[in-house]
């Protein structure tokens, strides 16, 4: 269906369908940015409620791309191939996908796709610059301006969410296997 939508939209814009094929080929090559886009699409579709099947399918594609790129293992030798920043991005994208997998499995009553036993990526993040960024609640009322805010604690919150997802994986594994 996505393929048909791309072709239809492309044909309407320039009168040919060749452009639609170019857009479709983005899904046949594994890339970190494609994985990120698929995970954003997954979360957006999942939030709609009636698009959970599509969300599950896009998530599955993202998970398979992660395995295709070897992002489920954290090999020290990769340091020669990737910069420290790229390794950090790969690690965060992997754990973000791991969390998405557990949440979707829990809410949809399906088995997990990424098992912790199949991964070798530590829950360790090097870049914690956003940990103490200032955070204030956002609201459309004037009352939100009264709140002084607090540190964001983004890195420690994400680390805890990853650990919680590992525990969820164990529980879901007992239920659905």
From TrEMBL:
Q: What's this protein's name? A: Xylanolytic transcriptional activator regulatory domain-containing protein
Instruction: Supply the alphabetized keyword list.
Output: DNA-binding, Metal-binding, Nucleus, Transcription, Transcription regulation, Zinc
Q: Which SMART domains match?
A: Fungal_trans
Family matches, as InterPro entries:
Transcr_Regulatory_Elem, XnlR_reg_dom
Boundaries of each Xylanolytic transcriptional activator regulatory domain copy?
55-132
This chain's source organism reads: Verticillium longisporum
PANTHER family according to UniProt: TY1 ENHANCER ACTIVATOR (PTHR31313), ZN(2)-C6 FUNGAL-TYPE DOMAIN-CONTAINING PROTEIN (PTHR31313:SF86)
Q: Name one GO molecular function term.
A: DNA binding
- An individual GO BP term: DNA-templated transcription
Q: Keyword Zinc, does the record have it?
A: yes
Q: Which Pfam families match?
A: Fungal_trans
Q: Does the keyword S-adenosyl-L-methionine apply?
A: no
